[in-house]
Amino acid sequence: MNKGKYDIVVLGAGISGIGAAVLAKTKNFSVFVSDNGTISDDDKAVLAQYTIPWEEGHHSTPLILEAQEVIKSPGIPQKAPIIQQLHEQGIPVISEIEFAKRYTHAKMICITGSNGKTTTTSLIYYTLKNAGLNVGLAGNIGQSFALQVATCNFDYYVIELSSFQLDNMYDFKADIAILLNITPDHLDRYNYQFQQYIDAKFRIIQNQTENDIFIYWNDDPVITAELDKRNIHAQQFPFALEHKKGEKAYLQDNQLIMNTPSNTFAIPREEIALQGLHNLYNSMAAGLAASSVDVKKETIRDSFRNFQGVPHRLEYVASVRGIRFINDSKATNVNSCWYALQSMDTPVVLILGGTDKGNDYSEIEALVQEKAHTLIFLGVDNSKLHTFFDKMGKPMIDVRSMEEAVQTAYKGANKGDTVLLSPCCASFDLFKNYEDRGDQFKTVVRNL
After folding, report:
1. Are residues 190 and 247 in the same domain?
2. Within this chain, do residues 119 and 72 fall inside the same structural domain, yes or no?
3. N or C: which end of the chain has fewer CB within 10 A?
4. Which positions carry the signal peptide feature in this UniProt record (predicted)?
């Protein structure tokens, strides 16, 4: 491999890293890609197409420490030794999102929150596409933002941002920033300090001016407590269930009301395709964002009536002998599972487990007690789940594969029950990712 000093080193050769490397090369930077794991054949082909050198299975530290700038995969923690060495050397470490924004003047609609990001991002993108806007979908969903900047020319981007992506964004600015909610998540990445995670989420409003818009859930106690601590320059568009504090979106007479300076309209709640209280909030945020870029109310209504949701989030799979199976594999934290349980109107067999991220299961204790008659723990180490839930005295079964989980749930369910995969945990102990976990669930269910 050719050794030398590179303008840019990209750490991590996933979707984000490959996109960043391609953009860097198209902007005439010398660029090198380093991945501590394995690079897929497809990604190697892309790197070869752009003549970008790479390494896998290790990091060549001396070479990396000669870079002018490093673009880091969001999956690499700040405490990783190579990141610590870069900081000690004073070498800038940024995210793919930060890098790509330098090369586009498109309007940025950015969404973060502990839960609901993917659904809200997808609904906004769907609505803007229906309006005929030239729009890209990026971030934690869709194609790499950097790759789209390198190969497309969009006027708008709808970008889902995780806290990990926000951590390494400095000059980036969202024209429209959406903060859906904040509940404890990924605390293992934030030294088990909730405030550090909160601060990461609030980075979505950094650099905003009075010409920008900040959309947020006004009933979230964490968000509202933080508002008083921060000097917010953007126009504020709060949403909530009731119209009591200047909300721009709210529920009134069972209609979703939107009231922005450029658009006022209503849609009956029962006409919204996405059902459930959590999806009502997601729809409020999406409607405010669409209204803010002057999408016509008729288009917003049509989009809300026809949008079908996203895979792995409360996704109906099948009914087998009167037992309904729901795939909520995207529920990688406790609050997501709370929303799933809250939406259940039948007795539940609940499949939990995976890689614990510092979870506090007390948030779902009452709902599990009320709605779930059997718990199935799918994970390598289920000790923390047993420590918390054993006191309930419900049937609890440990399994080590999705096949075993579904078969066990099927045997333990009664006609009229729902088998709900809503794990509360990350998937990396037994699966490649939450998509793999959800796909395996669907395959096994359909083979029953």
Report:
1. yes
2. no
3. N
4. none
Per the annotation, does 408 bind a ligand? no
Judge whether 359 is annotated as a binding position.
no
On whether both 321 and 285 belong to a single domain, the answer is no
118 labeled binding residue: yes
d(CA 380, CA 401) in angstroms, rounded, equals 10
How does pLDDT run along the chain (448 residues), one tens digit per residue?
344 589 999 999 999 999 999 999 999 999 999 999 999 999 999 999 999 999 999 999 999 999 999 999 998 999 999 999 999 999 999 999 999 999 999 999 999 998 899 999 999 999 999 999 999 999 988 889 999 999 999 999 999 999 999 999 999 999 999 999 998 877 888 888 999 999 999 999 999 999 999 999 999 999 999 998 999 999 999 999 999 889 999 999 999 999 998 889 999 999 998 888 889 999 999 999 999 999 999 999 999 999 988 889 888 899 999 999 999 999 998 988 998 998 898 999 999 999 988 889 999 999 999 999 999 999 999 999 999 999 999 999 999 999 999 999 999 999 999 999 999 998 989 999 999 999 999 999 999 9
Contact 417, 349 (CB under 8 A): yes
- Check the annotation: does 114 bind a ligand: yes
How many other β-carbons are positioned within 10 Å of the β-carbon of residue 265? 17
Query: Minimal CA–CA distance to 49: which of 151, 172, 179?
Result: 151
Residue 99 lies in a domain: no
Cα 171 to Cα 16: distance, rounded to the nearest angstrom: 18
1 is a domain residue: no
Domain that holds residue 327: 315-446
Are 124 and 262 part of one and the same domain?
A: yes
Which residues on adjacent β-strands are paired with residue 398? 377
320 and 297, same domain (yes or no): no
Full-model pTM: 0.83
113 labeled binding residue: yes
- Of the candidates 17, 332, 403, the one whose C-alpha atom is nearest the C-alpha of residue 9 is 17
Task: Give the total residue count for the chain.
Answer: 448
276 annotated ligand binder: no
